[in-house]
Specification:
The complex is a heterodimer.
Chain A (H helix, E strand, L loop, with lengths): L1 H21 L8 H5 L1 H4 L27 E2 L9 H15 L6 E6 L6 H21 L7 E7 L10 H7 L1 E6 L1
Parallel strand pairs in A: 2-3
Antiparallel strand pairs in A: 1-4, 2-4
Helix pairs in contact in A: 4-5
Chain B lengths: L1 H15 L15 E4 L3 E3 L3 H16 L3 E4 L5 E9 L2 E10 L5 E10 L3 H17 L8 E6 L6 E6 L6 E2 L7 E6 L6 E5 L6 E4 L13 E6 L5 E6 L6 E6 L5 E3 L8 E6 L5 E6 L6 E6 L6 E2 L6 E7 L5 E7 L2 E8 L4 E4 L6 E7 L5 E8 L2 E8 L6 E4 L5 E6 L2
Parallel strand pairs in B: 1-3, 1-4, 2-4
Antiparallel strand pairs in B: 4-5, 5-6, 7-8, 7-29, 8-9, 10-11, 11-12, 13-14, 14-15, 15-16, 17-18, 18-19, 19-20, 21-22, 22-23, 23-24, 25-26, 26-27, 27-28
Helix pairs in contact in B: 2-3
The chains are: A alpha+beta, B mainly beta.
Amino acid sequence: MNKIFFKMFLFVAVAGSLVFLGGCRSNKADADLYGSDNLYGDPLLGDMPLNDIGGLPADGDRSLFPAVYFAYDSSQVNPEEAKKCEDVANYLNKGKGQGVIVEGHTDERGSREYNLALGERRALAVRDYLISLGVNPAIIQTKSYGEEMPDNMGHDESAWRQNRRVVFAIY
Amino acid sequence: MIRRLFIGFSMLLAASSFAQRAVVEREGSGKISINLAGYRTGSDTASRNFLSVLKSDLIRSGYFTVTSSTASINVVGQVRAGSQMKADVQVYNVATRARLLGKSYDGPSTASSALAHRVADEIVYAVTGKPGMASAKIAVVGTRSGRKELYICDMDGKNMRQITNDRSIVVGPRWTPDGKNLVYTSYKRGYPNVFITSSGKPLASYGGLNASGAISPDGKSMAVILSKDGNPELYVKNLRTGSLKRLSRTQRGNEASPCWSPDGNHIVYVSDASGRPHVYIISANGGTPKRISSSGTENVAPDWGKNGYITWSSRIGGKYRVVVANPLNRTMRTLETDWADYEDPHWAPDGRHIICARTSNHQSAIYLLDTLKDSPVALISGSGDWYSPAVSP
């Protein structure tokens, strides 16, 4: 598991550097590497700096792609949710849309400030996955809402499940 | 005599607050009886309000029972109100006849409550030698406008006024060390940035998350959580030069909720690098963090009081409860509370009380907790939710 994680880390690091250095957009992820279910479970939160947001859009169209859902207190992109990210990556890699704001949300449990960080980590996990799929890091912003913007106002497990999510806002 | 008794008493409190609860803990014991029946007021609203607020403040301080029969302490004098208000206050130890306080206070009659808060704190200090909290202010997030905005009120929950009109979301207010401004996170520019109430310009607006800004006691730096380098981490920003120093490196963890030690040499914060959120202390210059929480499935939202003790919210048996810890010897205790969730504890300036958000049936209100003996008191409730309180220094 650790080995796989490390391999994937290397992959993302190398892919990321390529994107940065060459500005090239690799549309194709390594099929072998991404064939394994285990891999999606470990977000690779690297040191992939974010753009300063000055002048960048703060809002976008949230209706184009479905939300990605997460387990409690987790920022791992689950295998069954990964396809949603891949659809977004394909869309962006085809040059549709200028960019995406990846919005991270949590359920209401836990402290608000901790949940801000957790929501950001979910958004970053999705961002890193998009980058690994060849999306240019410069067009992916993250925005954490923590527990402040629930999708379902309920207070039970089914509501919480719907609120632990990442939403794609395409601009 | 009483004064001396109380100095001894205070030392005893300091020494015993983490060991066994001392004599003062017993119901009905340890309170000083204080008599204000001899205090003269006019029949005008301002004067009557002054006396009524003063009595409530003295009771809320935790040190007194107000009585109109024989008491240990007598408060005499008079308050007169025109456009200005003048309160003469003399406080006597009945047994020794010693005068503990003799002063005149004045202010506009429209601010009779503020004058009463001031007098209450002076009486608390004159009798017990300990600082009061009546003049402090509470900053809090409220939802009554339909948005999440910042509000400020007095320590008794009254005099509530709305501070922000960002029409978006505000999170986690903290006072500047001079007590004049608030630092908070707002989405008014679309992304979560850190703002200060004295300026329209953000204090931190990097890419990604900017949250939990906390100004150092000397006012020169700000501890802040940023994700600009790819993961939420703890940074210290020099407010003069703008330079950033990154203190945490946890690629597989979150950091949140930094708070400075009273001397500004350390920062207490939350990290889940170990797998669960726990409370850590790190030198303000960086280095290896030291974990101070051990039990509880979540340990979040620490606040380091001027009394040296750290309070935070710990999830124990499925409920959030308030923990008070001595970081020097790592002893801690959990405050006795009911079945509700108690979150975001903050020390009051008296070093004895803690303000926090109490949530029951999905409604949040602001409560005052006593670390010694008194039962929790509701300060702000109704008209939407109230949470994330911060008490002015």
